[in-house]
Amino acid sequence: MIATQIVPSPDSALPVVVEARKALGENLDYVSLESYIIGKLFLAIMQAIEGPLTRENFLKAARRQPYDIGGVKVDFTTDNQGSDFVQVTVLRDGQFIAITPQELVGLFK
Questions:
Q1: Which of helix, strand or coil describes residue 68?
Q2: Average pLDDT of the segment spanning 2-16
Q3: pLDDT value of residue 69
Q4: Which residues contact 1 (CB under 8 A, 6 or more apart)?
Q5: In whole angstroms, what is the distance from residue 57 CA to residue 88 CA?
Q6: Residue 5's beta-bridge partner residues?
Q7: Which residues partner with 10 through β-bridges?
Q8: In the chain, what are the domain boundaries?
Q9: Is 88 helix (H, G, I), strand (E, B) or coil?
Q10: Mean pLDDT across the chain, nearest whole number?
Q11: How far is CA 75 from the centre of its chain?
């Protein structure tokens, strides 16, 4: 089985993944990592709000600048899709494992 993920692998050395691994321990997987990153992004946007907390000011803060969430780049300055990151994974021994584009091609030979 092949699946795509929108966050780095849970065994990544990116600072946000290392932080999430320390916080979540054995509960760290792709879903919990995505939630962790979104939570940190939400807090970063909240801290960037100028003026009272309103929907309009939240959206202005989100769109004002790109955000680096511990190595994960998120940018709403040009559209509503904050990230174009996609990681291809395969199911091996009950776990989704990140693979390279070359490995993906090899699966179809």
A1: strand
A2: 95
A3: 98
A4: 90, 91
A5: 35
A6: 87
A7: none
A8: 2-107
A9: strand
A10: 95
A11: 12
The pLDDT of residue 42 is above 90: yes
Is residue 30 helix, strand or coil? helix
For the stretch 10-23, pLDDT in tens is: 999 999 999 999 99
Given the candidates 3.40.50.2300, 3.10.105.10, 3.40.50.20, 3.40.50.720, the CATH classification of the domain at 2-107 is 3.40.50.2300
Determine the distance from the C-alpha atom of residue 68 to the mean position of all C-alpha atoms in its chain, rounded to a whole number.
Answer: 10
Q: Which amino acid is at 11?
A: D
Token pair for 60 = 């202005």
pLDDT at residue 68 tops 90: yes
Joined tokens for residue 102: 């070359």
| Runs of H (alpha helix) within 7-99 | 15-24, 30-48, 55-64
* DSSP code of residue 12: -
Q: Measure the CA–CA gap between 66 and 15, rounded to whole angstroms.
A: 17
Tokens 């321990």 belong to residue: 25
- pLDDT tier at 74 (50, 70, 90 boundaries)? very high
